[in-house]
Write a structure and sequence with these properties.
This protein has 379 residues and is an alpha+beta fold. 48% of the residues lie in helices and 17% in strands. It has eleven helices and eleven strands. The protein has a six-stranded antiparallel β-sheet. Strands 3-4-5-6-9 form a five-stranded antiparallel β-sheet, with helices on one face. The longest helix is centred in the N-terminal third of the chain and has 46 residues, at 96-141. The protein starts with 13 loop residues before the first helix and ends in a 5-residue tail after the last strand.
Length: 379
């Protein structure tokens, strides 16, 4: 680098990117300011005098600003300034004016880095507040089900694709009813507050219908009517094209070996056996999502299957199946989970979430709602 230049680096989006870094990347980022200061000394000592280390010393506090506390940023700024003063003193006999200019450049950048640190800290505080509100909303809309319900082991997860928003149109609900344990996992078309609003409507309608209706087909009919009423209140595109893909499941109270599934245009659930076997519960008769009865109407039909003791039922949204790696390959839960053994529903969902994150490199593009139910051995 020739004498006389200086650089300036960026701002806020780094926080989100840093949160998605690998552990090695985070450690490297934390050490980068020190590396720049030491590298500046090394560069100055090993290069001819016409080259300057000022860009290294200027960059160090700027890199520290979004990563460190105010005290850490100030310490880095002082170290960089001291380093520039030392090398400038060494070169002052050759060009004193240029050395003074370089010291002033590093000083100005150091002061700017302290201001950037304050701005970033305030942004972090606002983001933390948004996360708190988002988490509270998630707990209200999607409360975690109990670990055990009517003799079944249950676990649920909502994995948001964005670090600053933890709830969207993906949904799940579990209800113990006079007809057995009933479950739903669904995905509302669209994003943002309108999708959340529709998810709330679907969950509310499901909880009421699950208690009152004798069959899953009747529950699906109630959800259909609830979405039609909601669509009638909306304007524009959502009024005509709003829909929700969903899977409803039922495990009767007196027959835990029976599993009924009704699929309305949603990714098929998976049934994982204790020996590592895996079976996709694809619908016998494919159906359109909820909210599209005006396009085509037909009677709903639940498929019944055997639910062996020790087996795990996994329901998920398309954030799982549409997750891609860097080469554009979709995540295949059947291939990734077949042959594996899990201690229970929590272990299954923890493993699945971590595996999807590895597949995407920590950059998922869609939210995921996950629900797992296990019929215990002897249950």
């Amino acid at each position: 680098m020739l004498r006389g230049g200086s650089n300036r680096a960026g701002d806020g989006e780094r926080r989100a990117r840093r949160d998605r870094m690998s552990p090695f990347g985070r450690r490297l980022a934390r050490w980068l300011p020190a590396i720049l200061v030491v590298g500046g000394f090394f560069f100055d000592v090993t290069t001819p005098s016409r080259y300057t280390a000022a860009p290294f010393f200027s960059a160090a506090p700027l890199v520290a600003a979004p990563l460190y506390s105010l005290r850490g940023t100030a310490f880095t700024a002082l170290a960089a300034l001291a380093g520039e003063v030392l090398v400038a003193s060494y070169h002052s006999s050759q060009d004193q004016r240029e050395s003074i200019t370089e010291v002033l450049t590093v000083f100005v950048v150091a002061v700017l880095s302290l201001g950037i640190n304050r701005v970033v800290r305030r942004s972090d505080a606002r983001l933390a507040s948004v996360r708190d509100v988002s988490e509270a909303a998630q707990r209200a809309v999607l409360p975690l089900p109990p670990d055990r319900l009517a003799g079944l082991c249950i676990a649920a997860r909502y994995v948001g694709a964005r670090v600053d928003a933890q709830i969207g149109g993906d949904l799940y609900a579990v209800q113990d009813t006079p007809h057995g344990v009933r479950l739903i996992v669904g995905d509302v078309r669209g994003k943002g507050l309108e999708a959340v609003e529709a998810a709330v409507i679907v969950i509310g309608a499901f909880r009421e219908a699950a208690e009152q209706e004798a069959t899953l087909e009747a529950v699906a009919g109630r959800l259909e009517r609830a979405l039609q009423r909601e669509g009638g209140r909306r304007e524009g595109l959502d009024r005509f094209e709003g829909f929700t893909t969903a899977v409803l499941a039922e495990i009767p109270s007196k027959e835990h070996s029976v599993l009924r599934v009704l699929n309305r245009g949603h990714p098929a659930p998976l049934l994982l056996a204790p020996d590592g076997g895996l079976r996709e519960l694809a619908p016998v008769s494919p159906a359109l999502p909820l909210g599209l009865s005006d396009v085509a109407g037909w009677p709903d039909r639940a498929d019944e299957t055997f639910f062996p003791a020790g087996s795990l039922l996994l329901l998920f949204t398309d954030g799982v199946t549409e997750a891609r790696d860097l080469a554009g390959r979709f995540y295949d839960p059947q291939a990734r989970l077949r042959g594996r053994h899990f201690a229970g529903p929590d272990d299954l969902l923890d493993t699945l979430s971590a595996d999807v994150a590895r597949h995407t490199g920590g950059l998922p593009v869609d939210d995921m709602a996950l629900l797992a139910v296990q019929r215990p051995l002897g249950g």
